[in-house]
Design brief:
By secondary structure, this protein is α/β, with parallel strands linked by helices. It contains 14 helices and eight strands. It is globular, with a radius of gyration of 21 Å.
């Protein structure tokens, strides 16, 4: 055994030692020499479920002599899931005000009629990646919020975002990766065409619940074709316990754009089983059998029908985990 290991090996050892919360808690106190490095790994990406965990995390921060300074220096990404009170959400955004990535998959109606406090808090953050699954009006903030203009990665689960030809997404100049919900009965093809016209986009992902061959036919009917389009499941996948894989779905989806379209399906898609198996290594869980019905089922013969009528609606993000 060499007296001094290469830095890369040391970093890999520390990463494995903080793979889960239990491992991190056990190994964090072993050595004063490794403590600073392990603490950085533990706090870099934070995944919190529910109000009680958020409150405990805030209490932990406030026990430090300089809680704001520590949070600014240590926390780069946040993933908040479940039922979290408005005051707790705003508190954690105030403390962790240097994060560049955030996912809000929340069950709350506290912002349904007035989301101004949330957008104000998010505007103060140097965000580059943002995922939103909660009951809040977001179509107006897309055009008015400073935060949206600086994003490179945006994932919004909203039923009505593609209802109108001018949703504002096409004006976000920094975007390179975009994921939105596509509901064929409501979607305005012009809205999709305007998104495709954005030459800066490297990935345009659609979360769909309809059979993929029907989505494919919808796009073909409206002469929409682009190698950057990838179909994703509606389900939002959680990170690893300590934030591992925070950008994994983006990476997996973008990899699909670099592959040829399979001959028997005519579109690119990323099945849920592939996503869950990619996270299995982080979560130390057993992998499931790969299942992509598009790869084994023949596309049905197309029947020409007229375009569906779309009801009007207001863009609201919905919760589905």
């Amino acid at each position: 055994m060499p007296a001094s290991l290469p830095l890369e090996i040391k970093q890999n050892i520390l990463t494995l030692a903080t793979r889960t919360r239990s491992q991190a808690a056990k190994n964090l106190m072993i050595s004063r020499q490794t403590y600073p490095c392990m603490e950085k790994l533990v706090y870099n990406r934070i995944l919190l479920h529910g109000e009680s965990n958020v409150r405990r995390f805030l209490q932990c921060l406030h026990q430090r002599p300089l809680p704001v300074e520590f949070a600014q220096k240590s926390v780069a990404s946040l993933f908040l899931v479940g039922s979290i009170e408005k005051s707790s959400l705003l508190d954690i955004l105030f403390l962790c005000n240097r994060i560049t990535s955030i996912r809000l998959v929340l069950i709350t109606d506290e912002f349904a009629t007035d989301g101004s406090s949330l957008w104000s808090a998010l505007d103060a953050l140097p965000l580059q990646s943002f995922l939103l699954v909660m009951h809040v009006e977001f179509t107006s903030p897309i055009c008015a919020s400073t935060m949206f203009k600086n994003l490179s990665h945006l994932d919004i689960h909203g039923d009505h975002l593609l209802d109108m030809p001018h949703a504002g997404l096409e004006s976000l100049e920094a975007l390179t990766h975009l994921c939105v919900t596509l509901i064929m009965e409501r979607a305005d093809p012009t809205a999709i065409t305007r998104l495709i016209s954005n030459a800066r986009l490297r990935l345009l992902a659609f979360r769909v619940d309809d059979p993929h061959h029907e989505v494919e036919e919808f796009l073909e009917e409206h002469e929409i074709s682009d190698h950057r389009i990838v179909l994703l499941p509606e389900t939002t996948t959680l990170w690893g316990e300590l934030g591992q894989g925070d950008m994994l779905v983006w990476e997996l989806a973008e990899d699909q754009t670099k592959l040829p379209i399979p001959q028997n399906q005519g579109h690119r898609c990323l099945p849920l089983s592939s996503i869950e198996n990619a996270y299995a290594d982080y979560n130390d869980t057993e992998k499931i059998p790969e299942w992509n019905p598009c790869a084994i089922e023949r596309r049905p013969m197309r029947v020409n029908v007229g375009p569906a009528r779309r009801p009007n609606g207001v863009g609201m993000a919905r919760t589905k985990v």
